[in-house]
Amino acid sequence: MENKAGYKQFDVADYLKDMEDVAGYLEIALEESTEDPTALPRALGAIARSGNMSELARRTGMSRDGLYKALSADGNPTWSTILKVANALNLRFSVHAVA
């Protein structure tokens, strides 16, 4: 999508090239989620857009439109949806004690 000046709008999905990029981006989103509860769903949305959204929809049992909506800035996905998407992307969340 281009803006009025003719520049392409920045989309992090264009820069997520491998699982190391994905994991790093998701870690940042998790850290930001304490201040912004939409950070994690939006990050999963960008990760999903960086790949094959139709295949992801098939693996989660959701529609493409449903995924786009749930993982948008205005979406409000359930924890179950977040876990389905993460699992379908071969991602796992873990908890570590912090001393």
Describe it for me?
By secondary structure, the chain is mostly helical. It has helices at 19-32, 39-49, 53-60, 64-70, 79-88. Helix 1 (19-32) runs antiparallel to helix 2. The chain is globular and about 50 Å long.
Query: What's the assembly state of these chains?
Result: single chain
List segments where confidence is low: pLDDT < 50 over at least 5 consecutive residues: none
Mean pLDDT, as a whole number? 91
Report the biggest beta sheet as strand number plus sense, adding barrel if it closes.
none
- Secondary-structure element pattern, one letter each: HHHHH
Structural class: mainly alpha
Main attributes of the structure:
single chain; mainly alpha; 5 helices; globular
Structure, briefly:
By secondary structure, the protein is mainly alpha-helical.
Topology:
Layout: H1 19-32, H2 39-49, H3 53-60, H4 64-70, H5 79-88
